User: Fold this.
Amino acid sequence: MLRTGADYRSALDDGRVVYVDGEAVKNVAEHPAFAGVVATMASIYDASCEPGSPLVDPDTGRLAIWTTPYTEAQHELRKVALEEWSRRSHGFIGRGPDHVAGLLAGFASAPEVFDTEDRALGANVVAYHEKASAEGLWLANSIVPPQMNPADPTSRVRPLEIVEEREDGIVIDGAQMLGTGAAVADAIFLTSVRPLAPAETARALSVVVPINAPGLSLLCRRPYATAGDAFDYPLANRYDETDAMVVLDRVLVPWETVFAAGSTEVVNRQFFGTAAHQIGNLQSIIRLAAKLRFLTGIAAKVLVANGRDKDMALRGQLAEISTIQTVTEALAEMAHRCAKPDANGVWRPEGKYLYAAMGQQTDVYPRAVKLLGELVGGGVIQVPAAAADLRNPDEAAAMDVVMGSDQLPVEERVKLFKLAWDVVGSEFAGRHVQYERFYSGNVAVVRNYAHRHYPFAEVEGLVDEFLGSYDA
Assistant:
């Protein structure tokens, strides 16, 4: 039976330890910092329950984001579901349920990667994927250690590591840098995306931990959803997925949710030795294309609002934004269309296009936001402080002198430009620019993925053939 929005909401009231502004949150679903994104996610769960929903795999009756694509039809179904998921959040929820679902679907397609001479943990991966799929869970992830200065002898930073192995599981202790969406998720996937050295066995773990696990606490950054109401900060209100520092104080992880423990080889192979990284990150670029599409729509409406849609120079700027969106969408489409089954029969998006899109992500979103900022100009500052100003008769009369028009009434203009501000200038906006810069990790590492998947031998062969066609 599919999970409903009410099911999701009630699951969040589970005793989890989440701190915001120095206080422990009693129920995240009701707290102003999280209520908006919880409502958004609940609406998506409810949408999946509608007859014929594109979010659902009709063969399994489950959310299609969890489907491991063994056939071309399943591959197509996952893409449609990912597009619908991103459309409903306009790409502003980057680590929603649709992200880690793809990673676990990839892991489950190659369980042998998780088996070692000491422990056969591949069966755990398959079983947990089945459980999470059946229950429609939201898994956040935290796969990077906290920033630290290795030259500082006084540093007390403790990256996450295994401190004890027991019959009933492993005990992990330390911290991870970031758990985006963790405060409103069901569980969190913890591992290291950074390749580990052979001696780093203590850090070699791959586990899933419930958010309410004893000893786990989340320290949230400043919430942006509390900056103002939905009229003043429309995107932050609905889509601030929150980021949190993840701290674990001797957390026991039962063996059934342990995928790797002490094997650097398994941890280093889990993403690329399976289909996980490729089918998981198809979501990343589909989401980015949806986000850029929404941004392009704002830019187009701003030009019309200012009566500048016939200005050749400004139309050129709008065209540049739309081109960024089109290229991103085209790369996502090509990654999907050129997919091929791997050795395990899983349809993997074509790396040449997938990683080209991810490699340019760090530049194109900040560029699009900069262009939008130039198009809106002072219009995003020439707005009243809050929606309440529109209800004051004296202020309303004064605003009519500043921006009154029958063609575009004051309230509609303010509404549009406040939306634009939440993309170009608010704290929420700044976070998203920084977020897209580092969404997939270190820029050099991500571009190396693109290098690894580009057919350089093929293009060098073209040059060799041409060079061989003439002599000195």
Notes: Residues 276-305 form the longest helix (30 residues). The mean pLDDT is 96. The radius of gyration is 24 Å. Residues 173 and 250 are 5 Å apart (CA to CA).
